[in-house]
Specification:
The protein has helices at about 10-20, 45-50, 85-95, 105-110, 130-140, 145-155, 200-205, 210-215, 240-250, 300-315, 325-335, 350-360, 380-390, and strands spanning about 55, 60-65, 70-75, 85, 165-170, 175-180, 185-190, 190-195, 220-225, 230, 260-265, 280-285, 290-295, 340-345, 345-350, 365-370. By secondary structure, the chain is of the alpha+beta class. It has 2 domains: about 10-105, no CATH class; about 160-400, L,D-transpeptidase catalytic domain-like. The strands form 4 sheets. An 8-stranded mixed β-sheet has the order 7-6-5-16-11-12-13-15, sandwiched between helices. The longest helix has 14 residues, at about 10-20.
């Protein structure tokens, strides 16, 4: 019969150290030289606890064992398998035998700031208590509650731990950038899409089409002979960019759906604030091109005026994560209007934010939160977008092939 030895991380380090010593193994450094000073980083305090983890109390017919926060018990002298203690039994052993406060007591001491994260999420470490604690820590730095919860949720997901990421809250017109391991880089207010995030599958799918796909949907096809768009409806219509943007407005497509995206490339375009790179192109996680982007503020009076109002209310620089309550009150006041929401789906941000985040942008993840007061945390979404693209109600973007030239357009 096979037997399994279960060791904690620290016990494993102790075992390896003893084996190295017993058999005179040598440890070499990166250059191949013998490192006679090598020591495993064993926590001395934890080592002592491990040696004392089995306890017997005089007059008590049972003995007890502690492994981390897990407790076991069995009758003395019978050498039978340990029985894991749960519930009140575990709490009693923790407090009476080991002098440790019960886990349920420590859980109740953590204040709840955030809605529960989705059960179908990819959280690989921590848990509800760590999630609330991280959010609480972010709140103390002046990050608004909604964003604190989303950022905490992201930090619990090991798939994104080594990646730079942006977090955008369309409800509060805020965009944050974080480096690998969640290091804060910059934040800004943003003038964003004029329409509220839709819950309609067809509208969501169409909002994620690229500029070329939107042109095709209007009935224009690229004619390589004339190097221009032709009207395939035989109505002798003339193609214009304004027709595309008018269609976005008519069909309420001026927003970015809740989901996870990536920055596929950096660019420099005229008409946007910034002398150098001033556009971050977005794509869905499965590589689908999108019309929406993060870019410098469009040089138009209404967007400049909206941004300056927001920036004045925000007060703090891009180098501080802090957002005053007065700013939140302002955007909430005009939430149902287009006072600060004037684009065709893109995020208009200042040139200084673009320049500060350029080193972190290429390949970064972009988390677009939900706009509602509830259910705003972002889950994985590439599969959802693929299903939207394959919907019978929408043109499948992959069916467009090479009918259109490579044209990028943002607004």
């Amino acid at each position: 019969m096979k037997k399994v030895l279960i060791l904690s991380e620290n016990e494993l380090k102790i075992l390896i150290k003893k084996v190295l010593k017993e058999y005179n193994f040598r440890v070499r450094n990166k250059n191949g030289d013998v490192d006679s000073t090598f020591e495993f980083p064993i926590n001395k305090k934890q080592d002592t606890i491990l040696q004392e983890q089995v306890k017997q109390v005089s007059g008590d017919p049972y003995e007890y064992r502690k492994e981390g926060n897990i407790y076991y018990t069995r009758k003395k002298g019978l050498n039978k398998p340990w029985i894991k203690a749960t519930g009140k039994a575990a709490e009693a052993i923790a407090s009476k035998i080991y002098g440790v406060k019960s886990q349920s007591g420590s859980t109740r001491s953590v204040k709840t700031y955030c809605e529960p994260y989705p059960k179908t999420s990819d959280v690989l470490w921590g848990g509800p208590e760590q999630y609330q604690k991280l959010a609480s820590d972010l709140r103390t730095k002046g990050i608004p509650n909604r964003l604190a919860c989303e950022i905490s949720f992201i930090k619990l997901r090991l798939n994104y731990k080594t990646k730079s990421f942006f977090v955008y809250d369309p409800r509060q017109n805020l965009l944050y950038c974080f480096g690998p391991l969640g290091a804060f880089i910059a934040k800004t207010t943003t003038v964003d899409g004029a329409n509220v995030q839709s819950q309609d599958a067809k509208i969501i799918a169409q909002s994620l089409w690229s500029y070329q796909q939107k042109v095709e949907n209007l009935g224009f096809v690229w004619d390589p002979k004339t190097a221009s768009y032709a009207d395939k409806s035989n109505k002798n219509r003339t193609y214009s960019r304004s027709a595309v943007f008018d269609d976005l407005e008519k069909n309420l497509l001026r927003f970015i759906p809740k989901g996870i995206y990536t920055i596929k490339g950096l660019d420099k375009l005229q008409g946007y604030e910034g002398d150098g790179t001033n556009v971050f192109w977005l794509s869905t996680l499965d590589g689908g091109k999108m019309m929406q982007a993060i870019h410098g503020i469009v040089n138009s009076p209404d967007r400049i005026e909206a941004f300056e109002t927001l920036r004045k209310s925000l007060g703090s620089s891009i180098n501080s994560p802090q957002v005053p309550e007065s700013y939140i009150n302002l955007v909430e006041k005009y939430l149902e209007t287009d006072r600060f929401n004037k684009s065709y789906g893109c995020l208009n941000v200042p040139a200084e934010f673009i320049q500060k985040t350029i080193p972190y942008a290429q390949g970064a993840m972009v988390f677009v939160m939900g706009e509602g007061q509830e259910n705003y945390l972002v889950q994985n979404s590439s599969e959802f977008f693929q299903k939207m693209g394959q919907s019978e109600d929408c043109v499948d973007p992959s069916s467009l092939g090479n009918q259109l030239p490579e044209i990028n357009s943002v607004a």
